[in-house]
Automatic annotation (TrEMBL):
Annotated ranges, domain AH: 1-95
Any single Gene Ontology cellular-component annotation: trans-Golgi network membrane
Protein name stated in the entry: Arfaptin-2
Coiled-coil annotated residue ranges, if any: none
Length: 114
């Protein structure tokens, strides 16, 4: 949702409020009806955009939960493989995490090699 949509909605709302406070005449009644139509159209559009954003946020939240669940499962599998001494299962799980396994006897690479 763009900030411009909110600005337009507020502008039409303030126009309607301003015209509703002016003394009644034939010209002001016509302007008030036009302002009411403009406001209603922009309010409908703005409400639709807000509903779309709410749906997108709900999808993002659901996706976040799915990703967290998957990561927790992978972490559990890695910890289980580590403590059971199953090196192949540990390497397979770490490969899913995109982590390279270093054996304990190798020295870390020099800063020049990185």
């Amino acid at each position: 949702m763009d900030g411009d949509e909110r600005i337009e909605y507020d502008a039409y709302r303030s126009d309607l409020e301003m015209l509703s406070q002016t003394p009644r005449s034939e010209i002001s009644s016509i302007k008030l009806e036009e302002a009411q139509r403009n406001f209603n159209g922009h309010k409908t559009h703005y409400d639709r955009l807000r509903a779309d954003v709410a749906i997108k946020l709900k999808f993002l939240e659901e996706n976040k939960v799915k990703v967290m669940h998957k990561q927790l499962l992978l972490f559990h599998n890695a910890v289980s493989a580590y403590f059971s001494g199953n090196q192949t299962a540990l390497e397979a799980t770490l490969k899913q995490f995109n982590i390279k396994v270093r054996s304990p006897n190798t020295a870390p690479p020099s800063w020049l090699e990185q």
